[in-house]
Amino acid sequence: MTIMNRRTFLGAAGLSAAAAALGEGAWRPARADKPVNFSGWVFKPDTVKDYVDFFNKNHGGQVKYDAIPWATYHPTMETRALAGEVVDVMYCNSSNRERWFDNGLIRALDDLPGMDELKKKIAPANLDSLKSKDGSKIVALPYFTSLFILMYNEPMLQQAGIKAPAKSWDELVEHCTKLKRDKVSDTPYLPNWNNSGSGTMPQFLSDCFSEGASVFDAKNRVIADQEPGAARAMERWQKVYRDGLVNPEVLTKTSSTDTHRLFWTGRYAYHTNHSYYLKTIAGEPENSKLAPKKAKMAMYPGNGTTHMFTDFYVVNAKTKVLEDAWKFAKFLGGNLNGDWHVQRQWCLISGLDNPYPEMYDHPEIIQSYERWVDLKLLREQYKKGRTITAFKEPWYAEYDSKAIAVVHNIIRGTSTVPKGLKDLAALQRSVA
Amino acid sequence: MVRPSLSERAVAWWFVAPALLGITLVVVFPLAYSLWLSFTDVNLLRTTGPALELAGMRIPLFRWIGGKNYVQALTDPLYWDSLWRTLYFVAAFVAEATLVGLGMALVLNERFPGRPLMRSLLLIPWSLSRIVVGLLWIGILDFEFGALNGLLHRAGLVDGSIAFFKEGWSALNVLVAVYMWNQAPFVTLLFLAGMQSISDDLYAAAEVDGAGYWRRLWYVTLPALRPIVFLVLVLATVNGFLMLDLIYVLTMGGPGYDTTTISWHGFKTSFTFFKFGPGTAILYTLTGLCLLLTVVYHRLILRRFEPEG
User: Fold this and answer.
1) How do strand A89-92 and strand A36-41 relate by DSSP bridges?
2) Chain B partners within 8 Å of A75 (Cβ)
């Protein structure tokens, strides 16, 4: 047996290591020195991983992806920034984006190549959402855009002899009252009054807008207490709750996802929620009793206007790999190679819309949407989508969260409508 | 060369030094730092102010603002609403968990066929993640698809469904009950351990004196369990004050603010509104309450207790 001494062993180990390093260099294509770090909240992480892999393979990228639970996503990203970690490309929701920009965590994108072309392709209302509070800079690319829509259970309406879905709120209440009276449904209406940020308040904005009311003035102060349309919407909410037309536990549902799943049961006639949820309701027979296409979309009642918002991809201001990070950000939120790869994937897989109208002419998108929604009607509804700019205020996250309890008190009748709306205005003044 | 010998005291310090260092790093420092944060204006994204340099790490100290965060927390009506709700929650939970835990321990301390299996099964609720516990109970209590509603309906006991989460009071009591279900097994375990350390001689002597089951329980078992009762009360109180995850899964603090406790209020203030200073101040008031109640329990339960030997 040959005995290897320490010197020989170290020499051999050194040679092996050198060979491995050289081999790696010789066989692999040249790559950037530093990878692009990318973080997002958990929503279909496997899909995200797939398109990250696609980017790395087809666009010579070196992106490292990690997903963080939604509940702690934004605090975690801030803690990572505090620790000096630079995550080059990140998701960001509307309530936190302006604070991230104001505090220097993320950078403006106007000076980056291709931004001007992208701007031309984005629908104007959505483009405003991508701008900083003063409107001077683009600070994000769109992850997805959503708007509130009205969905209805066609077989249930037919069973009750109702020929067409409600066009006005009064008609909707009338239909629901009849359905309950005829014992077709115990709770015919499922509004998205859940306790999360995507529930009660977007629904409140939508219903106020549909009644012709503004919730914020030009300086983003709450003026709902001065708007007769807001009072009308709240009186209607009180009525449907008091009359037992809605699921009494919807106020403690913890997410819009949980809420929309109730509609799968086929036990409700009407549901208001984000447009993309109709994809699972009307397009997934394995989950929903209202698929295929037994649940349909109707134009939002009232004047048809509804709330629309965008969530974002942002680029870290301290990125050391700006060129690569921007290339990846364009792949995610723009159109890197003319194929809208990521935006298209989200449309096809989850019905997550985007602010690029030209995408909706693509045959693959038309065919896919045809399976769960009337695309033409959805695009019409988008034209009536109304954004707010109050989300760019530093106080908005706190207001938006605390306002839920105020609105719940109105719904339950523990506060009168005029007092509740005054409380909302007072709440906004107290946090601003 | 003769090495100077270390004193016994110095050797002892050397032995405990690694443990002390570990405790300082993972307990003392975070506690002290978070207490400091409760007196500062914290913005995680603006860290250019004063900082502590430790082993190459820069730990921001943020701007000192004195007791402003505490004043802000204590002058918010929501804080006081949440506090009364929290006190009710803790009192109900501690009482329920202690009584149910003690009851189950008394049963499991008796000899009967299947006792080992029962003892093992008992631990299942406690070993489940509280997120899972929450989801499980949604499956049982939900208005739309809850198993309990289905059962009651089929048995003809209710017409329609019971909405357990519709009213705030009912939702709060559901939270108490679910948390008790989750924690009572641990309390049982503690009581059971305490019961098994009671000398059989005491029971034998009591029997000789003609004591029946209830007298033995009252005069032998319960007095001997005093240290365990103290431990149970302290742990249950602290756990009750800190309970957060079930609220997250079951109610998100609603409807309205009807299930918002101090821990939820502090969590929201810190992690939704990004007001880490006031959020930490809110949560430190809980720490104060826990300390206060621990002293009260100690005085009430252990003051006249003299351990054997």
Assistant:
1) parallel
2) 270-271, 274
Token pair in block for residue A223: 């003026």
Q: Which segments of chain B have a pLDDT < 70? A: 1-4, 304-309
Cβ distance B178 to B93 under 8 Å?
Answer: no
Domain A146-308+385-431 sits in CATH 3.40.190.10? yes
Helix axes A375-383, A363-370, angle to 10 degrees: 100
Overall pTM surpassing 0.95 (yes/no): no
ipTM over 0.90: no
For A195, the closest of B60, B144, B253 (CB atoms) is B253
- State the Cα–Cα distance between residues B107 and B114, nearest whole angstrom: 12
**Which residues of B7-56 form beta strands (DSSP E)?**
40-41, 51-54
For chain A, what are the domain ranges?
36-145+310-380, 146-308+385-431
Chain A residues interacting with chain B (CB cutoff of 8 angstroms): 71-72, 74-75, 78-79, 81-82, 84, 96, 99-100, 103-105, 186, 194-196, 247-249, 251-252, 254, 262, 265, 267, 397-398, 401, 404-405, 408-409, 412, 414
DSSP B63-115: EE-TTHHHHHHHT-HHHHHHHHHHHHHHHHHHHHHHHHHHHHHHHHTS--TTH
With CB atoms and an 8 Å threshold, state whether B143 touches A251. Answer: no
Q: How far apart are the first and last CA of chain A?
A: 81
The fold of A36-145+310-380 is D-Maltodextrin-Binding Protein; domain 2 (3.40.190)
pLDDT confidence bin for A27, thresholds 50/70/90: very low
| Same fold yes or no, A36-145+310-380 and A146-308+385-431 | yes
Residues 6+ away with beta carbon under 8 Å from A191: A203, A237, A240, A246, A250, A271, A272
Q: What ranges do the domains of chain B cover?
A: 8-66, 69-302
- State how far residue B249 is from chain A, nearest Cα, in angstroms: 7
**Phi (first) and psi of residue A146, to 5 degrees:** -140, 155
Look up the CATH superfamily of B69-302: MetI-like (1.10.3720.10)
Residue B126 identity (one-letter amino acid): W
Nearest to B273 among A105, A254, A397 (CB): A397
CB A314 within 8 A of CB A391: no
Determine which helix (DSSP H) or strand (DSSP E) holds A63, and give its type and residue range.
strand A63-68
DSSP A149: E
